[in-house]
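Input sequence (276 aa), recorded before submission:
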Amino acid sequence: MTDERPLAGRRIALVEHRELDRLGRMLEELGAETLRCPLVAIADAPDQAAVRAWLERAIATPFDDLVLMTGEGLRRLRGAAERAGLEPGFLDALARMRTITRGPKPARALREIGLDPGLRAATPTTDGIIAALSGEDLAGRRVGVQLPPDAPPRLTDFLRHAGASPDPVVPYAYVPRADSREIAALIEAMAQGRVDAIAFTSAPQVARLFEAAAAGGGEDRLLAALRGTPIAAIGPVVVGELQRRGLEPAMMPQGSFFMKPLVTAIVVALSRHQHL
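Predicted structure, token format:
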């Protein structure tokens, strides 16, 4: 290895979809070979009528608070508003609401439209949002809640118990991307020790990998392969999904959950030991 190409000779599996080329390019510029197997793509929610109805409610009577769980969610809401001819009204309504953000990505999506979060969760998780709101008097407040797909009801249950009226919306969906053969090849490469690290950038990627392995009767083989492969995880939500399956990441950026810090964490970990 050299200082300029600290990942020379390393093979890193990438399962990201949206920013796959960017992440791959950053790693390859540092000398890595990338094994690309995008597991999950993001699409607009299939029930666009429900999204439009939520937007119309938000515009007609802006919420007191709006919880933004993801940057993708706010961007998808803007896209839906634009397609429906509602974007000016939605942006005006947004400026009147107190926004509560889970992590840096929804905060960045707000800044793209000239707004700042009213309240930020100290930890970018659902529990972090609940902790941020626990000291608030929420009785009688109308709270819009932008949720990711398949989110548990914990946050909306908390809001109801606190006396608020939550109005949830799920503006996007996860759809499978790689086919079963590509996923089987990825698992086999890890099982044979031909992968130096695998990087997960969202919890649904972990879930999709296990779902595909289970469908082919290979969940035990996947677990063994992952236990023998250093895992990079971009943040605490991904870490939680891995730990739920008995796995511990070897690499995670501290404090900033974006691609560049993830790459830095991978470089530090793989440079520290010639073979983890």
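Checked by second reader. Residues 259-272 form the longest helix (14 residues).
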